[in-house]
Amino acid sequence: MDVSFIIPHKGREEMLLATLQSIFRLQRHEQQLEVVIVSQNSSTTDALEQLIAKHPIQLIRHQGNTISEMRNVGVTHATGDYLAFLDADVELSPNWLVVMLETMTQRPHTILVSAHQIEGPNAPPLEKIRTALSNAELDCSVTFLPGRNLFLKRETFARLGGFPEHLVTCEDYYFTERASRLGELFYTSAASYVHLGEDKVYKEMFYKEIWRGQSNLQSIKGRSIPMREWPSFVVPPALLALLICAIASLLLGLWPATVASLILFAIPVAAYSWRLKRLVGEAVSLSKVVQFYSMFFPARAIGTLSGALKEIKTTSHS
């Protein structure tokens, strides 16, 4: 059985090199590996050229509009019976491939597998928070898997019709939720990866979350939304509205309204922060946890709103 690794890529090549090196360090039995890189970069460094000359790597130049489109293009160039979709900034544990294959064999109803995230060396508080959130549910069946490392059979990918090319972000929510209708999604702690490009600075995270939120509403179309996912759509805009109300009331000198808005803003932030603090334990201070949600929710709301406005504008011109 052959395994094809599909990697969409743009920009940072040093992280791509680390990803590739981890792939070719993987433990394996008789499996033949190939890597298909779908890159938007117009040039290639000598280091990458040397890896391509040494290993079975295809480099496809493609200016895709979305990550989904680039992944789907990669599959058309792949020959493997199994497909491994990776981001271009992950470092896999040496046992990753063995665990993926064993999990699919030992759990006959499992159709999609992902390894759990671990922190990199000297991880700052924000990376620890992101890692803890990613690992909130482990060694169990889940309804969603992050797209940074996904392993499935090629026939499953064909049944799903590929990744949703109309979504700029949230494509992994859409793809893996549809996959959950066909079989089990399993998030295992037996193998791991380091997300080299994980958020490490709060300010950068804020702007990234605005970008990530732009396809929130579009991702709802065509899939069922579990009850536990609804707060992620309702809470961010509600908190942004309260924050705007607090600022406006402050400028107008309406102190009771200002205080009331801030209290209502603080209640869900405190509730989410309490849950997250239980996940991270003593590794991250409570102040850093509160800072995370105080920035995360408004950013997601801004991203969702901007995405909705873009959708309205696009629809009105079509």
From TrEMBL:
Oxidoreductase recorded as keyword: no
Cited SUPFAM superfamilies: Nucleotide-diphospho-sugar transferases
Organism domain of life: Bacteria
UniProt-recorded Gene Ontology molecular function terms: glycosyltransferase activity
Domain Glycosyltransferase 2-like, residue spans: 4-156
Key words of the record: Glycosyltransferase, Membrane, Transferase, Transmembrane, Transmembrane helix
One of the Pfam families matching this protein, by short name: Glycos_transf_2
Transmembrane segments: 230-251, 257-274
Record CDD domains: Glyco_tranf_GTA_type (cd00761)
PANTHER family, A to Z: GALACTOFURANOSYLTRANSFERASE GLFT2, RHAMNOSYLTRANSFERASE WBBL
Family per similarity comment: Belongs to the glycosyltransferase 2 family.
Protein name: Glycosyltransferase 2-like domain-containing protein
